[in-house]
Amino acid sequence: MGSVQIVTTILAAAITAVAVWLAARAVMKIVAVIRLGRPDPERFADRGARTRTMLAETAGHTRMLRWTVVGAAHWFVMVGFIVLSLLVLEAYFEVVSPTGGLPLIGGLAVYGLVTELIAVLGVVGILVLIAIRVRNRPTRPGGRSRFTGSTMWQGYFVEAVVLAVLIMGFVIRGFKVATDHFEYPVWATPVSHAVGALLPDWSAGVSIAALIKIAISMTWLIVIALNVTMGVAWHRFLAFFNIFFKRDPGRVGSGLGALRPMMSNGKPLDFEEADPEKDQFGVAQVEQFTWKGLLDFSTCTECGRCQSQCPAWNTGKPLSPKLLVLSLRDHAYAKAPYLLAGGGKDLTGEEKATAAQLAHLDVLALAEADKPLIGGAEDGGVIDPDVLWSCTTCGACVEQCPVDIEHVDHIVDMRRYQVLIESSFPSEAGVMLRNLENKGNPWGAPQNTREDWTKGLGFEVPRVGEVDDFEYLFWVGCAGAFEDRAKKTTRAVATLLNEAGVKFAILGEGETCTGDPARRIGNEFVFQMLAQQNVETLNEAFEGREKSTRKIVATCPHCFNTLGNEYGQLGGEFEVVHHTQLLAHLVSVGKLTPVQPVDGGVTYHDPCYLGRHNRVFAAPREVLGSAIGGGAGGRGGAASISGAGRDSGLVEMPRNSERSFCCGAGGARMWMEEKIGKRINVDRVEEAMSTGARTIAVGCPFCSTMLSDGVNGKGAGEQVEVLDVASVLLRSVKPADATGEKGTAAAGR
Fold first, then answer.
1. What is the domain count for the chain?
2. Which domain of life is it from (predicted)?
3. I need a labelling partner for 80 at 20 to 30 A (CA). Which of 179, 260, 343, 674 fits?
4. How far, rounded to the nearest angstrom, does the alpha carbon of residue 544 sit from its chain's CA centroid?
5. Residues 30 and 131 in one domain
6. How far apart are CA 392 and CA 684, in angstroms?
């Protein structure tokens, strides 16, 4: 060991010791903060499925690869970061000796080839990611960036470090080539040999370059250790855990569909025994999130994928799912010293810590502890009320997040406290909640008018109790029973089921609202009241039947989601299908035969709670494809989704399927005024109209209302018609029966 190697060894050891100590301290702090959260025992179930999902999403990059270029580039960088950590380890041997290397595998040609290839692809990958970040920088002209609100220097720093470490790997190998100490052949390491041809024969160069590489790597570790909220770096470690502990590891669209029940002390809250002084009603303080919630906040990469897809953000509202998560993260870590010292408020609002426990705390931590979780700028709140109430719960944020953050659950948990304890929510939504409590529907319509839609159908609609041999219980829903446009869909579905010979029955006046709008706005009490009533009614209707024969068909995706995914939490186990799924089946088996082509072109809007939340994408398109061709394409044939044939085919909007853009009605927004920014439904209608299609097909009564209002607001009611998929099919199957409805619809516009 020469004098140069003595110096490089000492310096490498010193900076490594400092970095490791700081990193260990940072990890302990992160773990301590996450452990402040409430229990969530269900996250430890089914560890086999969790492990498989975690490996698929990390090693396989199954979520990231949906964005092909970014996903591929990120995969090479990730693999480079993991595999080339061996080269950082090798650098510790090289600071000691210019001929040093890893024992056992260090001299293998295959090791040299693999690391060379990964390093080259890693350089290409990181350059692509840097270019994407620069191209999408928030200061660029032409609109909002997905990086708006991200801490840009941190992203550039991490990317620069990765690039520098990769380059220094080639420099070290180059010096070994130049000094004739390189053990790998040219065919395995051509880039390293090319670099070596440019470098001088300097024996100390290997150790000095290795020291620089170690210094860069340890500087990175020191910087992130001093910035525990630096998600763009920490997600490299935390993402594995966050994905492992996702809500539903075996379900595509984990974190979507059902909402988590309201929890207290790790158990679903029983309202019959709940005590507001002992039980937690929603989230009022950041430490009242579960530990998984705090892990979510810590893991955020600040990539802005959620933000780029959010309908609120894209229409000028203050909600950005990313900025909401970052605000909660920063607040949690700023408040952590106070909480870890024993501070915090109990459920009655009393301070838990003694004056002695808080005496040594920094004034900033005490100030952070006094901030309300929800409050305007004048109150110093962490989350502004306009942010909280802008959410449509469409799930685009959850769908897009590469590390499985569950934004919707966290937003609804905060809403629950505001509604149930503070009674603080948009005033216009109060009418809807009162109607649900008093009338059993959000419109406040009389219960004895629930069956009015059946009048004049030309056939008898059987009621449960009058017949026992029905195959499907037709869940009409509140919109389908009371809202004029939705009643046309209800009549169309009933007509088609009757035409196909399907035995079905309705509950009629025995039906009440599923409780979806109450639950999404945060009133879990009203939801459970309505849901328990419906579960009791449905269990009685299906008495004696196995689950496989307890079939329900629903026209509203919100009812479909609640009945199928959430009533199981209250003892209601049913087989629930959306009407487009049943109609697609009936067409495919020949029980419904389209005969009249639908002209003028059709575009389809995916309802959030049908598509993204429940992954029903194909069935509506199969029905439309058959109707558009008048059956010429064959029964059940898949619809064309290309842009060709705008006059006669199904034309997809740019944002479709799992990336469909919300209509603006979800999350109980149907009953709230949209006072900020551009109207979401107008944005979606403009996109639909840009396809040139004369018919906008939907599969949801809320979407029908919102898009119809948007079309009328654009003054295009005479050129573009909004129709449910069932009505489109009815026009093709029974053109004569649909003529009257078409005329009525046109007159209504």
1. 3
2. Bacteria
3. 179
4. 38
5. yes
6. 14
